[in-house]
């Protein structure tokens, strides 16, 4: 499937959800019918001087922002109707629908006639391309900057980023400023070829920044590159954008681990550049360990510790993905509620939580969560809701996790005893070594302490298997108990050796007088 077809599938699949988010009149919404399939290029929030995989910008908006965390439900485990978060999905849930199914009036809700509207009535962004041209000599690049309607943008300033990579010299970055002619085109000759050199073209138009994917030049022919730059606004009301939100909750040692992922769609011809705080996410009070995954896109969240993360970058026409993760400390109760405030224009939210034998998921205003099994047999709880007509998006989530394990007294008794036993063993060792003697009761006390420690080992294992003690606490307690046991065993060995030495001396002392007596009798 070519890139144009993939882009069309992605936009068609997103249209209904976005319509719900921005309350477009006369646009129907249907549950489980908005599976975004493909991706369009995201954009950078400032020009980059460099090229290469590590510098990808606008062209990477549809790529996954980073690896999923441990325990994250796999894409293949999500329930029927879950929007795909992969590139290049091959199915279109709206294939075969008439224009009136998506928009009864058949027009573009953005107010102008789309050049590439297709049957959806929404604008479909033309793809950026970098294609070999056999009529161009190797080392030659001809690039054109166009607008949303494929018209060239004359006298546009662009930055050519060059990344040269070699094992011997490492990475070397260059940048050149190039201005297009009256036809929106510029030509560069004599450029290095081969996989060791990659290129990236970046341009600005108004508030927006746009860039190609990184690409290389072959030694067979040159390339023709097309980059699109759109009008941009920082006012969300001036752009046709909407979002889907996904929340994944799992239980970790002492915390709830939360990942939030957003698919942001722009189905208009104007890019949206949210200013600081314009697309803010309010996180639960006391959240910690905030992390943005490494990714190939500049459309990403930026953390502001006192307020929460906000979305930055240029939301060009197409699909963009951004995510982050954080932790919510457990309160020591069997149920805990935390609140998440969402950015504007969120038309659909799906929430997943780990589902063990006791845990449950409740979200205010959402249907009852359903327990489902993934391909690997893991259980997850799932609930979802779409914004209603006229709702202007889902603004906040009150998420309650039930059936949380409450720490019992076993962990504290085990820890206290382990530390006490370790201290006891150390005290025995220090005192006995200092006195140079072995008290008669030392062995009995040490044996009694060892038996108690072994009993604590059994209690610790039972508590761990029941889930009363998490893996980190279990590891710490086990290490403390092992240390105490090692000290006691070492002291027992010392006691045995000392007692053996004492018995040897006693035997020698008993034999010496008889020998001396025999010697005196012989001399007489």
Structural Rg: 34 Å
Strand count: 22
Query: Which sheet architecture does the biggest sheet show?
Result: 7 strands, mixed
Please, how many helices? 5
Main β-sheet, spatial strand arrangement: 13-16-11-10-18-21-20
- Could you name the ranges where pLDDT drops below 50 across 5 or more consecutive residues? 1-14, 23-115, 434-438, 517-524
- From the spread of the alpha carbons, the general shape counts as elongated
Order of helices and strands: HHEEEEEEEEEEEEEEEEEEEEEEHHH
Beta content? 25-35%
Region (Disordered): 30-138, 497-524
Protein name: Carboxypeptidase-like regulatory domain-containing protein
Biased composition (Basic and acidic residues): 32-48, 91-103
Keywords: Signal
């Amino acid at each position: 499937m070519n890139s144009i077809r993939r882009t069309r599938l992605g936009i068609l699949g997103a249209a209904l959800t976005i319509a719900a988010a921005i309350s477009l009149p006369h646009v129907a919404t249907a549950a489980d019918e908005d599976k975004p399939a493909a991706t369009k290029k995201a954009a950078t929030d400032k020009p980059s001087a460099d090229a290469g995989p590590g510098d990808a910008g606008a062209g990477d908006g549809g790529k996954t922002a980073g690896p999923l965390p441990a325990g994250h439900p796999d894409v293949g485990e999500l329930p029927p109707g879950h929007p795909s978060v992969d590139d290049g999905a091959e199915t279109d849930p709206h294939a075969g629908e008439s224009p009136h199914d998506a928009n009864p009036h058949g027009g573009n809700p953005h107010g102008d006639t789309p050049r590439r509207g297709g049957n959806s009535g929404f604008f479909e962004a033309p793809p950026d391309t970098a294609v070999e041209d056999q009529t161009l000599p190797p080392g030659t690049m001809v690039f054109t900057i166009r607008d949303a309607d494929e018209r060239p943008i004359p006298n546009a300033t662009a930055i050519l980023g060059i990344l040269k990579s070699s094992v011997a010299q490492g990475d070397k970055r260059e940048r050149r400023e190039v201005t297009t002619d009256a036809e929106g085109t510029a030509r560069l000759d004599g450029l290095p070829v081969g996989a060791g050199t990659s290129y990236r073209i970046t341009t600005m138009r108004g508030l927006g920044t746009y860039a190609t994917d990184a690409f290389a030049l072959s030694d067979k022919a040159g390339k023709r590159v097309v980059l699109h730059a759109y009008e941009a606004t920082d006012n969300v009301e001036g752009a046709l954008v909407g979002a889907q939100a996904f929340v994944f909750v799992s239980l970790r040692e002492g915390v709830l681990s939360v990942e939030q992922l957003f698919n942001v769609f722009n189905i208009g011809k104007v890019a949206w550049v949210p200013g600081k705080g314009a697309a803010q996410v309010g996180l639960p009070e006391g959240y910690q360990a905030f992390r943005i995954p490494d990714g190939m896109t500049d459309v990403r969240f930026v953390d502001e510790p006192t307020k929460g993360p906000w979305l930055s970058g240029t939301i060009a026409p197409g699909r963009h993905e951004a995510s982050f993760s954080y932790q919510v400390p457990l309160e020591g109760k069997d149920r805990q509620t935390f609140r998440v405030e969402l950015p504007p224009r969120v038309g659909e939210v799906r929430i997943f939580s780990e589902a063990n034998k006791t845990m449950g998921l409740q979200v205010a205003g959402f249907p009852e969560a359903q327990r489902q099994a993934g391909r690997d047999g893991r259980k997850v709880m799932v609930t979802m809701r779409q914004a209603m007509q006229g709702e202007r998006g889902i603004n906040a989530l009150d998420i309650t996790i039930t059936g949380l394990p409450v720490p019992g007294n076993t962990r504290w008794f085990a820890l206290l005893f382990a530390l006490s036993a370790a201290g006891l063993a150390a005290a025995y060792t220090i005192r006995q070594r200092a006195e140079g003697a072995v008290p008669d009761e030392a062995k009995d006390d040490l044996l009694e302490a060892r038996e108690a420690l072994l009993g604590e080992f059994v209690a610790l294992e039972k508590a761990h298997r029941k889930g009363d003690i998490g893996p980190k606490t279990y590891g710490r307690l086990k290490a403390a108990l092992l240390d105490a046991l090692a000290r006691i065993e070492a002291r027992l060995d010392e006691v045995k050796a000392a007692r053996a030495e004492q018995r040897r001396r006693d035997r020698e002392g008993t034999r010496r007088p008889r020998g001396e007596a025999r010697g005196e009798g012989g001399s007489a």
